[in-house]
Automatic annotation (TrEMBL):
It comes from the Eukaryota. Residues 414-472 form the SIAH-type domain. One of its GO terms (molecular function) is zinc ion binding. E3 ubiquitin-protein ligase that mediates ubiquitination and subsequent proteasomal degradation of target proteins. E3 ubiquitin ligases accept ubiquitin from an E2 ubiquitin-conjugating enzyme in the form of a thioester and then directly transfers the ubiquitin to targeted substrates. It probably triggers the ubiquitin-mediated degradation of different substrates. Gene3D superfamilies: High mobility group box domain, Zinc/RING finger domain, C3HC4 (zinc finger). This is SIAH-type domain-containing protein. PROSITE patterns: ZF_SIAH. Keywords: Metal-binding, Zinc, Zinc-finger. InterPro entries: AminoTfrase-like_pln_mobile, HMG_box_dom_sf, SINL_plant, Znf_RING/FYVE/PHD, Znf_SIAH.
Amino acid sequence: MYKYVPLCLFCFANVGINFCSREFIREYSASHPESSGLKAATKAASDAWKSMSVEEKAKYTKRSREVWDNYLTTAPARAPKPRKQTNLVTRCSPGRLFNVLQRLTPDQKAAVRSMGFGSLLGLRCRTLRRSLCLWLLERFNTARRSLEICGERIPLSPKDVELVMGLAASGKDVVNSGPDDLIVELRNSYNATNHGISVRLLEERLAAPEAGEEFKRSFILYALGTVLCPTARLDVSPSFLHFLTNMDTIHQYNWGKFLLDRLVREVSRFHQGKQRAVGGCLLFLQLFYYETVSVEGPGSLVPGLGPCLSSWGEEEITEREKRERELGGYGFGEVLYKESCLGTESSRCRAQLDCPPAGRMHTSSEHGPALGHGGNQVERDQMNGEIIMDEENLPIYLGDKNVVCGDIEVVVESARKACQNKEYGCKETLDYMKKSEHEETCSYAPCACPLLECDFVGSSEQLSLHFSSKHWDSGRRFRYNCPQAISLGMNEPFLVLQAEEDGILFLLNKGIEAIGNTVMVTCIKPSSSKETFLYDLVSGRGISSLRLKSFTQNFPGRVEGFPPVDFLLIPFRFLNSSRQLNVEVCIWNSTELGADCPALGLAIS
Protein backbone atom coordinates (compact mmCIF):
# COMPACT_ATOMS: atom_id res chain seq x y z
CA MET A 1 0.00 0.00 0.00
CA TYR A 2 1.12 3.57 0.52
CA LYS A 3 4.28 4.72 2.26
CA TYR A 4 3.94 8.26 3.54
CA VAL A 5 6.37 10.41 5.50
CA PRO A 6 4.22 11.67 8.41
CA LEU A 7 2.68 14.96 7.36
CA CYS A 8 1.72 15.83 10.89
CA LEU A 9 5.17 17.42 11.31
CA PHE A 10 3.95 20.53 9.55
CA CYS A 11 1.34 20.94 12.31
CA PHE A 12 3.93 21.18 15.07
CA ALA A 13 4.25 24.92 14.62
CA ASN A 14 0.50 25.31 15.18
CA VAL A 15 0.66 22.98 18.18
CA GLY A 16 3.56 25.07 19.47
CA ILE A 17 1.30 28.12 19.28
CA ASN A 18 -1.21 26.30 21.47
CA PHE A 19 1.45 25.51 24.07
CA CYS A 20 2.62 29.10 24.03
CA SER A 21 -0.93 30.46 24.18
CA ARG A 22 -1.89 28.41 27.23
CA GLU A 23 1.04 29.68 29.27
CA PHE A 24 0.77 33.23 27.98
CA ILE A 25 -2.98 33.46 28.62
CA ARG A 26 -2.58 32.24 32.21
CA GLU A 27 0.16 34.81 32.85
CA TYR A 28 -1.67 37.57 30.98
CA SER A 29 -4.95 37.00 32.83
CA ALA A 30 -3.16 37.05 36.18
CA SER A 31 -1.25 40.26 35.38
CA HIS A 32 -4.15 42.04 33.62
CA PRO A 33 -7.25 41.52 35.76
CA GLU A 34 -8.86 44.50 34.06
CA SER A 35 -8.81 42.76 30.64
CA SER A 36 -12.12 42.01 28.93
CA GLY A 37 -11.66 38.23 29.06
CA LEU A 38 -10.39 35.38 26.94
CA LYS A 39 -10.74 37.20 23.63
CA ALA A 40 -8.34 39.96 24.62
CA ALA A 41 -5.88 37.46 26.14
CA THR A 42 -5.94 35.31 22.99
CA LYS A 43 -5.24 38.31 20.76
CA ALA A 44 -2.36 39.36 23.00
CA ALA A 45 -0.98 35.80 22.87
CA SER A 46 -1.16 35.84 19.06
CA ASP A 47 0.71 39.13 18.87
CA ALA A 48 3.35 37.83 21.28
CA TRP A 49 3.88 34.69 19.18
CA LYS A 50 4.36 36.71 16.02
CA SER A 51 7.02 38.82 17.67
CA MET A 52 9.04 35.81 18.91
CA SER A 53 12.27 34.80 17.23
CA VAL A 54 12.79 31.35 15.72
CA GLU A 55 14.86 30.32 18.75
CA GLU A 56 12.11 31.38 21.16
CA LYS A 57 9.48 29.47 19.20
CA ALA A 58 11.70 26.37 19.03
CA LYS A 59 11.18 25.40 22.68
CA TYR A 60 7.40 25.28 22.22
CA THR A 61 7.71 23.34 18.97
CA LYS A 62 10.03 20.87 20.68
CA ARG A 63 7.57 20.33 23.49
CA SER A 64 4.75 19.71 21.01
CA ARG A 65 6.84 17.05 19.28
CA GLU A 66 7.53 15.35 22.56
CA VAL A 67 3.84 15.29 23.45
CA TRP A 68 2.95 13.93 20.00
CA ASP A 69 5.60 11.22 20.11
CA ASN A 70 4.44 10.21 23.58
CA TYR A 71 0.86 9.99 22.33
CA LEU A 72 1.83 7.77 19.41
CA THR A 73 3.76 5.35 21.63
CA THR A 74 1.31 5.14 24.52
CA ALA A 75 -2.13 5.56 22.95
CA PRO A 76 -3.92 2.21 22.45
CA ALA A 77 -4.76 1.21 18.91
CA ARG A 78 -8.30 2.16 18.04
CA ALA A 79 -10.38 -0.57 16.51
CA PRO A 80 -12.25 0.67 13.45
CA LYS A 81 -15.88 1.27 14.14
CA PRO A 82 -17.97 -1.27 12.25
CA ARG A 83 -20.05 0.22 9.48
CA LYS A 84 -23.73 -0.26 10.05
CA GLN A 85 -26.18 0.69 7.37
CA THR A 86 -29.60 -0.82 7.04
CA ASN A 87 -30.99 1.66 4.52
CA LEU A 88 -29.44 2.06 1.12
CA VAL A 89 -28.93 5.61 -0.14
CA THR A 90 -28.39 5.80 -3.89
CA ARG A 91 -28.91 8.24 -6.75
CA CYS A 92 -29.61 5.42 -9.22
CA SER A 93 -33.24 6.09 -10.14
CA PRO A 94 -34.62 4.05 -13.07
CA GLY A 95 -38.07 5.48 -12.36
CA ARG A 96 -36.97 9.00 -13.34
CA LEU A 97 -35.50 7.78 -16.62
CA PHE A 98 -38.59 5.62 -17.25
CA ASN A 99 -40.85 8.67 -16.92
CA VAL A 100 -38.73 10.69 -19.36
CA LEU A 101 -38.69 7.83 -21.88
CA GLN A 102 -42.50 7.72 -21.94
CA ARG A 103 -42.62 11.34 -23.14
CA LEU A 104 -40.13 11.05 -26.02
CA THR A 105 -41.35 11.67 -29.55
CA PRO A 106 -40.65 9.17 -32.36
CA ASP A 107 -37.88 11.46 -33.68
CA GLN A 108 -36.28 11.61 -30.25
CA LYS A 109 -36.42 7.83 -29.91
CA ALA A 110 -34.73 7.53 -33.30
CA ALA A 111 -32.00 9.90 -32.08
CA VAL A 112 -31.49 7.75 -28.98
CA ARG A 113 -31.10 4.64 -31.15
CA SER A 114 -28.62 6.40 -33.45
CA MET A 115 -26.31 6.93 -30.46
CA GLY A 116 -26.37 3.23 -29.48
CA PHE A 117 -28.65 3.71 -26.46
CA GLY A 118 -31.78 2.23 -28.02
CA SER A 119 -31.86 -0.58 -25.45
CA LEU A 120 -32.85 1.95 -22.78
CA LEU A 121 -36.13 2.52 -24.60
CA GLY A 122 -37.13 -0.97 -23.47
CA LEU A 123 -36.65 -0.14 -19.77
CA ARG A 124 -39.53 -1.59 -17.74
CA CYS A 125 -38.11 -1.62 -14.22
CA ARG A 126 -39.04 1.55 -12.30
CA THR A 127 -37.76 0.83 -8.80
CA LEU A 128 -34.69 -0.73 -7.25
CA ARG A 129 -35.01 -3.50 -4.69
CA ARG A 130 -32.80 -1.81 -2.14
CA SER A 131 -32.51 -4.78 0.19
CA LEU A 132 -31.18 -6.86 -2.72
CA CYS A 133 -28.79 -4.12 -3.84
CA LEU A 134 -27.41 -3.71 -0.31
CA TRP A 135 -26.98 -7.49 -0.06
CA LEU A 136 -25.09 -7.52 -3.36
CA LEU A 137 -22.90 -4.56 -2.34
CA GLU A 138 -21.78 -6.45 0.75
CA ARG A 139 -20.64 -9.28 -1.54
CA PHE A 140 -19.08 -7.13 -4.27
CA ASN A 141 -15.33 -7.73 -4.49
CA THR A 142 -14.06 -4.57 -6.16
CA ALA A 143 -10.47 -5.82 -6.39
CA ARG A 144 -11.51 -8.91 -8.36
CA ARG A 145 -14.51 -7.23 -10.00
CA SER A 146 -16.75 -10.08 -8.99
CA LEU A 147 -19.80 -11.02 -6.95
CA GLU A 148 -19.23 -13.66 -4.29
CA ILE A 149 -22.68 -15.17 -3.88
CA CYS A 150 -24.22 -18.61 -3.47
CA GLY A 151 -20.83 -20.06 -2.62
CA GLU A 152 -19.29 -19.01 -5.94
CA ARG A 153 -17.29 -16.11 -7.33
CA ILE A 154 -18.95 -14.65 -10.43
CA PRO A 155 -16.69 -12.28 -12.38
CA LEU A 156 -18.15 -9.18 -13.99
CA SER A 157 -17.04 -7.92 -17.39
CA PRO A 158 -18.13 -5.29 -19.92
CA LYS A 159 -19.77 -8.11 -21.90
CA ASP A 160 -22.11 -8.68 -18.97
CA VAL A 161 -23.08 -5.01 -19.13
CA GLU A 162 -23.80 -5.42 -22.83
CA LEU A 163 -25.98 -8.47 -22.28
CA VAL A 164 -27.90 -6.97 -19.37
CA MET A 165 -28.13 -3.28 -20.33
CA GLY A 166 -27.69 -3.53 -24.10
CA LEU A 167 -24.77 -1.08 -24.22
CA ALA A 168 -21.80 -1.70 -26.51
CA ALA A 169 -18.84 -3.49 -24.90
CA SER A 170 -16.36 -2.66 -27.65
CA GLY A 171 -14.94 0.45 -29.22
CA LYS A 172 -12.96 3.42 -27.98
CA ASP A 173 -12.51 4.08 -24.27
CA VAL A 174 -14.70 6.79 -22.78
CA VAL A 175 -12.49 9.59 -21.44
CA ASN A 176 -14.12 12.00 -19.00
CA SER A 177 -11.14 14.27 -18.48
CA GLY A 178 -9.18 16.84 -20.43
CA PRO A 179 -8.46 20.58 -20.63
CA ASP A 180 -11.26 22.56 -19.01
CA ASP A 181 -11.10 25.28 -21.64
CA LEU A 182 -12.53 22.82 -24.19
CA ILE A 183 -15.82 22.53 -22.31
CA VAL A 184 -16.22 26.08 -20.98
CA GLU A 185 -19.10 26.85 -23.36
CA LEU A 186 -20.85 23.57 -22.56
CA ARG A 187 -20.50 24.16 -18.82
CA ASN A 188 -22.04 27.60 -19.22
CA SER A 189 -24.87 26.30 -21.37
CA TYR A 190 -25.82 23.78 -18.64
CA ASN A 191 -25.18 26.20 -15.77
CA ALA A 192 -22.70 23.67 -14.39
CA THR A 193 -21.35 24.43 -10.93
CA ASN A 194 -18.75 22.67 -8.80
CA HIS A 195 -21.58 20.46 -7.56
CA GLY A 196 -22.61 19.42 -11.07
CA ILE A 197 -25.39 19.83 -13.61
CA SER A 198 -28.96 20.03 -12.32
CA VAL A 199 -31.08 16.96 -13.08
CA ARG A 200 -34.20 19.14 -13.15
CA LEU A 201 -32.61 21.38 -15.78
CA LEU A 202 -31.99 18.33 -17.96
CA GLU A 203 -35.58 17.17 -17.50
CA GLU A 204 -36.84 20.56 -18.66
CA ARG A 205 -34.68 20.43 -21.77
CA LEU A 206 -35.72 16.87 -22.60
CA ALA A 207 -39.37 17.98 -22.46
CA ALA A 208 -38.80 20.09 -25.59
CA PRO A 209 -39.76 18.35 -28.88
CA GLU A 210 -36.46 18.97 -30.69
CA ALA A 211 -34.31 15.90 -31.43
CA GLY A 212 -31.02 17.49 -32.51
CA GLU A 213 -27.57 17.62 -31.00
CA GLU A 214 -28.66 19.45 -27.84
CA PHE A 215 -31.29 16.78 -27.16
CA LYS A 216 -28.75 14.01 -27.66
CA ARG A 217 -26.27 15.59 -25.28
CA SER A 218 -28.94 16.25 -22.65
CA PHE A 219 -30.26 12.70 -22.93
CA ILE A 220 -26.82 11.13 -22.45
CA LEU A 221 -26.17 13.36 -19.44
CA TYR A 222 -29.55 12.47 -17.96
CA ALA A 223 -29.20 8.72 -18.56
CA LEU A 224 -25.70 8.69 -17.07
CA GLY A 225 -26.67 10.82 -14.09
CA THR A 226 -29.84 8.94 -13.14
CA VAL A 227 -29.19 5.28 -14.02
CA LEU A 228 -25.98 4.36 -15.81
CA CYS A 229 -23.25 6.25 -13.91
CA PRO A 230 -24.76 8.27 -11.06
CA THR A 231 -22.43 9.62 -8.39
CA ALA A 232 -23.10 10.01 -4.68
CA ARG A 233 -24.30 13.57 -5.36
CA LEU A 234 -27.71 14.72 -6.53
CA ASP A 235 -26.43 16.41 -9.69
CA VAL A 236 -24.79 15.04 -12.83
CA SER A 237 -21.00 15.13 -12.99
CA PRO A 238 -19.82 17.92 -15.35
CA SER A 239 -16.78 15.77 -16.24
CA PHE A 240 -19.11 13.89 -18.61
CA LEU A 241 -19.04 16.92 -20.91
CA HIS A 242 -15.51 16.00 -21.99
CA PHE A 243 -16.75 13.11 -24.16
CA LEU A 244 -19.88 14.96 -25.33
CA THR A 245 -18.15 17.64 -27.38
CA ASN A 246 -18.65 15.64 -30.60
CA MET A 247 -22.02 13.89 -30.62
CA ASP A 248 -21.28 12.14 -33.93
CA THR A 249 -18.88 9.72 -32.23
CA ILE A 250 -21.04 8.68 -29.25
CA HIS A 251 -21.91 5.33 -30.82
CA GLN A 252 -18.22 4.45 -31.18
CA TYR A 253 -17.49 4.27 -27.43
CA ASN A 254 -17.16 1.26 -25.13
CA TRP A 255 -20.01 2.13 -22.78
CA GLY A 256 -20.04 -1.29 -21.14
CA LYS A 257 -16.50 -0.82 -19.86
CA PHE A 258 -17.19 2.74 -18.74
CA LEU A 259 -20.29 1.72 -16.78
CA LEU A 260 -18.46 -1.14 -15.05
CA ASP A 261 -15.41 1.00 -14.23
CA ARG A 262 -17.59 3.68 -12.67
CA LEU A 263 -19.56 1.09 -10.70
CA VAL A 264 -16.37 -0.46 -9.29
CA ARG A 265 -15.04 2.98 -8.36
CA GLU A 266 -18.22 4.07 -6.58
CA VAL A 267 -18.64 0.77 -4.70
CA SER A 268 -14.99 0.91 -3.66
CA ARG A 269 -15.46 4.40 -2.22
CA PHE A 270 -18.58 3.20 -0.41
CA HIS A 271 -16.72 0.23 1.09
CA GLN A 272 -13.95 2.57 2.28
CA GLY A 273 -16.49 4.77 4.07
CA LYS A 274 -15.72 7.80 1.92
CA GLN A 275 -19.37 8.36 1.07
CA ARG A 276 -22.69 7.35 2.57
CA ALA A 277 -24.59 7.22 -0.70
CA VAL A 278 -23.73 4.61 -3.31
CA GLY A 279 -23.06 5.65 -6.88
CA GLY A 280 -22.87 3.51 -9.99
CA CYS A 281 -25.47 1.50 -11.88
CA LEU A 282 -27.12 -0.60 -9.18
CA LEU A 283 -29.83 -1.51 -11.68
CA PHE A 284 -27.22 -3.54 -13.57
CA LEU A 285 -26.29 -5.42 -10.38
CA GLN A 286 -29.93 -6.18 -9.62
CA LEU A 287 -30.79 -7.49 -13.10
CA PHE A 288 -27.48 -9.38 -13.35
CA TYR A 289 -28.39 -11.25 -10.17
CA TYR A 290 -31.84 -12.11 -11.49
CA GLU A 291 -30.36 -13.43 -14.74
CA THR A 292 -27.46 -15.33 -13.17
CA VAL A 293 -29.12 -16.98 -10.17
CA SER A 294 -32.03 -19.31 -10.78
CA VAL A 295 -34.66 -19.88 -8.10
CA GLU A 296 -36.65 -22.40 -10.13
CA GLY A 297 -34.00 -24.86 -11.32
CA PRO A 298 -31.49 -25.18 -14.17
CA GLY A 299 -34.06 -24.84 -16.94
CA SER A 300 -35.89 -21.81 -15.60
CA LEU A 301 -33.88 -19.08 -17.29
CA VAL A 302 -34.38 -19.17 -21.03
CA PRO A 303 -32.33 -16.79 -23.18
CA GLY A 304 -34.47 -14.19 -24.86
CA LEU A 305 -34.04 -11.77 -27.69
CA GLY A 306 -32.46 -8.42 -26.86
CA PRO A 307 -30.89 -7.27 -23.60
CA CYS A 308 -32.18 -8.52 -20.24
CA LEU A 309 -33.18 -4.94 -19.43
CA SER A 310 -36.44 -5.35 -21.34
CA SER A 311 -37.28 -8.70 -19.71
CA TRP A 312 -37.77 -7.43 -16.17
CA GLY A 313 -40.77 -5.28 -15.40
CA GLU A 314 -42.42 -4.62 -12.06
CA GLU A 315 -44.61 -7.74 -12.28
CA GLU A 316 -41.69 -10.06 -13.06
CA ILE A 317 -39.55 -8.55 -10.31
CA THR A 318 -42.37 -8.77 -7.74
CA GLU A 319 -42.86 -12.44 -8.57
CA ARG A 320 -39.11 -13.07 -8.37
CA GLU A 321 -38.85 -11.35 -4.97
CA LYS A 322 -41.75 -13.44 -3.70
CA ARG A 323 -39.94 -16.61 -4.74
CA GLU A 324 -36.74 -15.38 -3.03
CA ARG A 325 -38.63 -14.95 0.23
CA GLU A 326 -40.13 -18.42 -0.05
CA LEU A 327 -36.63 -19.88 -0.33
CA GLY A 328 -35.48 -18.04 2.80
CA GLY A 329 -33.87 -14.93 1.33
CA TYR A 330 -31.26 -14.01 -1.23
CA GLY A 331 -28.47 -16.42 -2.10
CA PHE A 332 -30.42 -19.68 -1.89
CA GLY A 333 -30.80 -20.09 -5.64
CA GLU A 334 -28.51 -21.87 -8.06
CA VAL A 335 -25.81 -20.05 -9.98
CA LEU A 336 -26.08 -20.91 -13.64
CA TYR A 337 -23.31 -20.65 -16.18
CA LYS A 338 -23.49 -17.25 -17.77
CA GLU A 339 -23.48 -18.90 -21.19
CA SER A 340 -26.76 -20.54 -20.22
CA CYS A 341 -28.62 -17.61 -18.72
CA LEU A 342 -27.05 -14.55 -20.32
CA GLY A 343 -26.54 -15.84 -23.82
CA THR A 344 -23.16 -15.82 -25.50
CA GLU A 345 -20.43 -13.31 -26.14
CA SER A 346 -22.40 -10.72 -28.06
CA SER A 347 -25.90 -9.50 -28.70
CA ARG A 348 -25.67 -10.92 -32.21
CA CYS A 349 -25.16 -14.41 -30.82
CA ARG A 350 -28.15 -13.99 -28.51
CA ALA A 351 -30.40 -13.72 -31.52
CA GLN A 352 -28.92 -16.92 -32.95
CA LEU A 353 -29.97 -18.86 -29.89
CA ASP A 354 -33.62 -18.63 -30.92
CA CYS A 355 -32.98 -19.05 -34.64
CA PRO A 356 -31.81 -22.20 -36.43
CA PRO A 357 -28.42 -21.86 -38.13
CA ALA A 358 -28.52 -20.98 -41.77
CA GLY A 359 -25.92 -23.63 -42.62
CA ARG A 360 -26.45 -26.99 -44.27
CA MET A 361 -27.01 -30.18 -42.30
CA HIS A 362 -26.63 -33.65 -43.74
CA THR A 363 -26.48 -37.14 -42.34
CA SER A 364 -23.61 -39.54 -42.60
CA SER A 365 -26.09 -42.35 -43.24
CA GLU A 366 -25.80 -43.21 -46.89
CA HIS A 367 -29.51 -43.55 -47.43
CA GLY A 368 -30.77 -41.09 -44.81
CA PRO A 369 -32.87 -38.19 -46.01
CA ALA A 370 -31.63 -34.62 -45.82
CA LEU A 371 -33.06 -32.62 -42.97
CA GLY A 372 -34.84 -29.53 -44.14
CA HIS A 373 -37.64 -27.25 -43.04
CA GLY A 374 -40.38 -29.00 -44.95
CA GLY A 375 -42.02 -30.35 -41.84
CA ASN A 376 -42.29 -34.02 -42.98
CA GLN A 377 -41.88 -36.37 -40.05
CA VAL A 378 -38.77 -38.49 -40.37
CA GLU A 379 -39.10 -42.13 -39.39
CA ARG A 380 -37.22 -43.02 -36.19
CA ASP A 381 -35.24 -45.77 -37.92
CA GLN A 382 -34.08 -43.29 -40.54
CA MET A 383 -32.51 -40.98 -37.96
CA ASN A 384 -29.83 -43.28 -36.61
CA GLY A 385 -27.14 -41.85 -38.85
CA GLU A 386 -24.64 -39.37 -37.44
CA ILE A 387 -25.63 -35.81 -38.21
CA ILE A 388 -22.63 -33.63 -38.97
CA MET A 389 -22.54 -29.88 -39.44
CA ASP A 390 -20.05 -28.36 -41.84
CA GLU A 391 -17.29 -26.47 -40.04
CA GLU A 392 -18.00 -23.22 -41.84
CA ASN A 393 -21.63 -23.38 -40.68
CA LEU A 394 -20.86 -24.27 -37.08
CA PRO A 395 -22.89 -22.00 -34.79
CA ILE A 396 -20.51 -20.06 -32.60
CA TYR A 397 -22.85 -20.30 -29.63
CA LEU A 398 -22.53 -24.06 -29.10
CA GLY A 399 -20.87 -24.57 -25.75
CA ASP A 400 -20.68 -28.35 -25.62
CA LYS A 401 -19.61 -31.04 -28.04
CA ASN A 402 -22.92 -32.87 -27.69
CA VAL A 403 -26.17 -30.95 -28.04
CA VAL A 404 -29.26 -33.06 -27.50
CA CYS A 405 -32.51 -32.01 -29.14
CA GLY A 406 -35.33 -34.55 -28.86
CA ASP A 407 -34.21 -37.89 -30.31
CA ILE A 408 -31.49 -36.33 -32.46
CA GLU A 409 -27.93 -36.18 -31.13
CA VAL A 410 -25.76 -33.70 -32.99
CA VAL A 411 -22.06 -34.46 -32.71
CA VAL A 412 -19.86 -31.49 -33.46
CA GLU A 413 -16.58 -32.55 -34.95
CA SER A 414 -13.41 -30.91 -33.74
CA ALA A 415 -13.32 -27.46 -35.32
CA ARG A 416 -10.16 -25.40 -35.50
CA LYS A 417 -10.38 -21.65 -35.60
CA ALA A 418 -7.82 -18.87 -35.72
CA CYS A 419 -7.40 -16.69 -32.64
CA GLN A 420 -9.52 -13.54 -32.72
CA ASN A 421 -6.26 -11.57 -32.35
CA LYS A 422 -4.96 -12.84 -35.68
CA GLU A 423 -4.93 -9.33 -37.16
CA TYR A 424 -2.67 -8.22 -34.32
CA GLY A 425 -0.05 -10.91 -34.94
CA CYS A 426 -1.30 -14.09 -33.20
CA LYS A 427 -0.76 -17.14 -35.39
CA GLU A 428 -2.42 -19.71 -33.14
CA THR A 429 -5.07 -22.00 -34.58
CA LEU A 430 -6.94 -23.90 -31.90
CA ASP A 431 -9.73 -26.34 -31.29
CA TYR A 432 -13.00 -24.54 -30.78
CA MET A 433 -13.27 -25.75 -27.18
CA LYS A 434 -9.84 -24.32 -26.33
CA LYS A 435 -10.14 -21.13 -28.35
CA SER A 436 -11.83 -19.00 -25.68
CA GLU A 437 -9.38 -20.14 -23.02
CA HIS A 438 -6.43 -19.09 -25.20
CA GLU A 439 -7.96 -15.73 -26.11
CA GLU A 440 -8.41 -14.82 -22.44
CA THR A 441 -4.62 -14.88 -21.97
CA CYS A 442 -3.42 -14.12 -25.51
CA SER A 443 -0.38 -11.84 -25.45
CA TYR A 444 -1.53 -10.29 -28.73
CA ALA A 445 -4.75 -8.91 -27.24
CA PRO A 446 -5.30 -5.39 -28.57
CA CYS A 447 -4.16 -2.27 -26.74
CA ALA A 448 -5.26 1.26 -27.63
CA CYS A 449 -3.06 4.29 -28.11
CA PRO A 450 -3.52 6.43 -24.98
CA LEU A 451 -3.47 9.77 -26.80
CA LEU A 452 -6.94 11.28 -27.09
CA GLU A 453 -6.66 12.22 -30.77
CA CYS A 454 -5.37 8.80 -31.94
CA ASP A 455 -7.53 5.74 -32.73
CA PHE A 456 -4.69 3.23 -33.24
CA VAL A 457 -5.30 -0.27 -31.85
CA GLY A 458 -2.80 -3.13 -31.98
CA SER A 459 -0.79 -5.56 -29.90
CA SER A 460 1.45 -4.09 -27.19
CA GLU A 461 4.47 -4.54 -29.48
CA GLN A 462 2.69 -2.90 -32.41
CA LEU A 463 1.59 -0.06 -30.13
CA SER A 464 5.18 0.46 -28.97
CA LEU A 465 6.40 0.82 -32.56
CA HIS A 466 3.45 3.05 -33.42
CA PHE A 467 4.10 5.41 -30.52
CA SER A 468 7.83 5.59 -31.26
CA SER A 469 7.26 6.53 -34.88
CA LYS A 470 4.08 8.63 -34.75
CA HIS A 471 4.12 10.25 -31.30
CA TRP A 472 7.80 10.38 -30.42
CA ASP A 473 7.39 13.97 -29.21
CA SER A 474 4.24 13.36 -27.13
CA GLY A 475 5.73 11.32 -24.29
CA ARG A 476 8.86 10.98 -22.19
CA ARG A 477 11.54 8.36 -22.70
CA PHE A 478 13.24 6.92 -19.63
CA ARG A 479 15.67 4.23 -18.52
CA TYR A 480 14.85 1.52 -16.04
CA ASN A 481 16.25 1.87 -12.51
CA CYS A 482 17.00 5.59 -13.05
CA PRO A 483 14.92 8.19 -11.15
CA GLN A 484 13.50 10.92 -13.34
CA ALA A 485 11.97 14.25 -12.31
CA ILE A 486 8.64 15.01 -13.99
CA SER A 487 6.24 17.96 -13.81
CA LEU A 488 2.53 17.56 -14.58
CA GLY A 489 0.38 20.57 -15.39
CA MET A 490 -3.05 21.18 -13.90
CA ASN A 491 -4.79 20.01 -17.09
CA GLU A 492 -2.59 16.97 -17.77
CA PRO A 493 -4.46 13.79 -16.77
CA PHE A 494 -1.51 11.57 -17.71
CA LEU A 495 1.95 11.42 -19.26
CA VAL A 496 3.14 8.57 -21.49
CA LEU A 497 6.48 7.07 -20.47
CA GLN A 498 8.38 4.81 -22.87
CA ALA A 499 11.31 2.64 -21.80
CA GLU A 500 14.41 3.06 -23.94
CA GLU A 501 15.49 -0.56 -23.41
CA ASP A 502 12.40 -2.41 -24.69
CA GLY A 503 9.90 0.30 -25.76
CA ILE A 504 7.22 -0.74 -23.24
CA LEU A 505 4.70 2.03 -22.58
CA PHE A 506 3.66 3.22 -19.13
CA LEU A 507 1.24 5.89 -17.98
CA LEU A 508 1.87 8.30 -15.15
CA ASN A 509 -1.77 8.97 -14.23
CA LYS A 510 -3.03 12.00 -12.31
CA GLY A 511 -6.49 12.33 -10.84
CA ILE A 512 -8.16 14.97 -8.72
CA GLU A 513 -9.79 14.42 -5.34
CA ALA A 514 -11.20 16.89 -2.84
CA ILE A 515 -7.91 17.45 -0.99
CA GLY A 516 -5.30 16.80 -3.63
CA ASN A 517 -4.08 14.83 -6.65
CA THR A 518 -3.88 11.06 -6.96
CA VAL A 519 -0.86 9.73 -8.86
CA MET A 520 -0.19 6.17 -9.99
CA VAL A 521 1.81 4.32 -12.65
CA THR A 522 0.19 1.73 -14.94
CA CYS A 523 1.57 -0.37 -17.79
CA ILE A 524 -0.09 -0.54 -21.21
CA LYS A 525 -0.42 -4.27 -21.75
CA PRO A 526 -3.30 -6.73 -22.00
CA SER A 527 -5.08 -7.03 -18.66
CA SER A 528 -4.32 -10.76 -18.62
CA SER A 529 -0.55 -10.20 -18.79
CA LYS A 530 1.31 -11.41 -15.68
CA GLU A 531 4.34 -9.15 -16.21
CA THR A 532 4.71 -6.53 -13.49
CA PHE A 533 7.10 -3.68 -12.81
CA LEU A 534 8.10 -2.21 -9.47
CA TYR A 535 7.92 1.58 -9.36
CA ASP A 536 8.75 4.34 -6.90
CA LEU A 537 6.97 7.71 -6.68
CA VAL A 538 8.28 10.60 -4.56
CA SER A 539 6.84 14.09 -4.16
CA GLY A 540 8.30 16.70 -1.84
CA ARG A 541 7.79 20.22 -0.64
CA GLY A 542 10.27 21.77 1.73
CA ILE A 543 11.14 19.28 4.46
CA SER A 544 7.99 17.21 3.84
CA SER A 545 7.89 14.36 1.36
CA LEU A 546 5.51 11.61 0.26
CA ARG A 547 6.49 8.26 -1.17
CA LEU A 548 4.79 5.25 -2.73
CA LYS A 549 6.36 1.95 -3.75
CA SER A 550 4.12 -0.46 -5.58
CA PHE A 551 3.78 -2.71 -8.61
CA THR A 552 2.19 -1.61 -11.86
CA GLN A 553 -1.09 -3.09 -13.01
CA ASN A 554 -1.79 -3.71 -16.68
CA PHE A 555 -4.46 -1.85 -18.64
CA PRO A 556 -4.92 -2.02 -22.44
CA GLY A 557 -4.94 1.76 -22.80
CA ARG A 558 -5.87 4.79 -20.76
CA VAL A 559 -7.07 4.35 -17.21
CA GLU A 560 -10.65 5.48 -16.77
CA GLY A 561 -12.41 6.36 -13.55
CA PHE A 562 -10.88 5.30 -10.24
CA PRO A 563 -9.46 1.77 -10.61
CA PRO A 564 -8.75 -0.29 -7.44
CA VAL A 565 -4.97 0.14 -7.58
CA ASP A 566 -2.37 1.72 -5.28
CA PHE A 567 -1.98 5.46 -5.62
CA LEU A 568 -0.17 8.35 -3.97
CA LEU A 569 -2.38 11.15 -2.64
CA ILE A 570 -0.54 14.47 -2.88
CA PRO A 571 -2.17 17.51 -1.18
CA PHE A 572 -2.71 20.59 -3.29
CA ARG A 573 -0.22 22.52 -1.17
CA PHE A 574 2.57 20.45 -2.79
CA LEU A 575 1.93 22.20 -6.14
CA ASN A 576 4.65 24.64 -7.13
CA SER A 577 4.15 28.33 -7.86
CA SER A 578 3.17 27.49 -11.46
CA ARG A 579 0.46 25.12 -10.18
CA GLN A 580 2.43 22.14 -11.46
CA LEU A 581 2.85 18.84 -9.65
CA ASN A 582 6.49 17.76 -9.33
CA VAL A 583 7.19 14.05 -8.82
CA GLU A 584 10.20 11.79 -9.11
CA VAL A 585 9.52 8.48 -10.85
CA CYS A 586 11.66 5.36 -10.95
CA ILE A 587 10.57 2.13 -12.66
CA TRP A 588 12.50 -1.11 -12.29
CA ASN A 589 12.77 -3.67 -15.04
CA SER A 590 10.66 -6.70 -14.13
CA THR A 591 13.46 -9.08 -15.13
CA GLU A 592 15.70 -7.58 -12.47
CA LEU A 593 13.31 -7.73 -9.53
CA GLY A 594 14.67 -11.00 -8.30
CA ALA A 595 18.29 -9.94 -8.64
CA ASP A 596 19.79 -6.81 -7.15
CA CYS A 597 16.89 -4.36 -6.90
CA PRO A 598 17.51 -1.86 -4.09
CA ALA A 599 13.82 -1.06 -3.76
CA LEU A 600 13.05 -4.55 -2.56
CA GLY A 601 14.97 -3.82 0.57
CA LEU A 602 12.02 -1.70 1.73
CA ALA A 603 8.83 -3.26 2.97
CA ILE A 604 5.86 -3.13 0.67
CA SER A 605 2.50 -3.71 2.24
